[in-house]
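User: Here's a protein and a ligand (adenosine-5'-diphosphate). What would the complex look like?
Assistant: Let me lay out the input and then the predicted complex.
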Amino acid sequence: MLCLTEDELYGRSSFHPEWNFIHEDGSQFPASAHPVPIAINTKRPVANVIMGVYRPITKGRVWLLVNAEPLLDDKGEVKEVICSFSDITKHKTVEEKLTWLYQSLEIKAFELATSNAELERFAYVATHDLQEPLRLVGSFMQLLKKKYAKQLDEQATEYIDYAVDGANRIKKLILDLLEFSKVSSNREEFGPTDMNRVLQDVVREFSGELKDTGAELVIPELPAIHANAALMLQLFENLVGNALKYRDDRKPFIQINCKEKDDEFLFSVSDNGIGIDPEYSDKIFILFQRLHNNNETYDGTGVGLAICKKIVELHQGTIWVISEKGKGSTFYFTIPKAQNQTYEKI
Ligand code: ADP
């Protein structure tokens, strides 16, 4: 343990200053705190004392776990002390490495949270401030078209229409980006949320479109969960909205489901729409990623599913899709149960 031969050890007392005993925090370990004198003085065993001991030959430090057990004679006096030493240097090195790793992880998490917050602030300010100049471009283009209608030829009017169309698209993008950056700002409002009520609002929101398309939307009895109600509404609005939008010639059939598991709820939204090539099942959750360009039938900005992912992850859950092109899609997401929470119907 001390890397000394018997000869080298001979004559070196336990309390010799060259051992330079230290505590785990690096402070000096006084001779009086050594387990042996304590066991002698108190006549009681001293267990699991950790001491750092200097090795005079190798000039390194060994960490020892020390136990001292006093043996008493008939009169109750200490006759001898049995002292055991275990070398825990390897254990301490691993522990120190783990502590270091944990601390650097904490620093990285803090840096990440700060830069995320800064990015979110930037997105919010940029999108907010862009709205006004954009509104000016759109309205002055309309004004130009109206006021100079007689002087403008067909091509000039067409160009103005393109410009107005572009401005409208940017406006839609900005509004969606604003929605995206706002998702994390209401994280404090978590509480018992009746998912039946959330879905009632979704049905109300899409009542016109459901009627126009003849869609069937099947919703079972749903649980109350620990969540942010506004975000749950936004999540289902996006998923049901997509299920209606990405339909083919068939009448849309949308089925909501929920399975209660040990520590989470598994929700799903299935449709019989155009489906997604499994190759793109991860890509579609990335901001601005779409599988259609904008002159196709399906309009959009590619922000909806990125919002869904952000909402689910804010609730510590995960979201994914299982789909087959031409056959329909099922979007799944989990919401963990909060600890100490009862899930009776509200
Ligand atoms: P957007 O609908 O504005 O394009 P989303 O982020 O909501 O943006 O969706 C990203 C892409 O995922 C869509 O462009 C579409 O290709 C695909 N997608 C989403 N939902 C469905 C669905 N229910 N069925 C088929 N494709 C879908």
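Summary: Strands lie at 46-55, 60-72, 78-87, 191-194, 216-218, 224-227, 253-260, 264-271, 319-324, 328-336.
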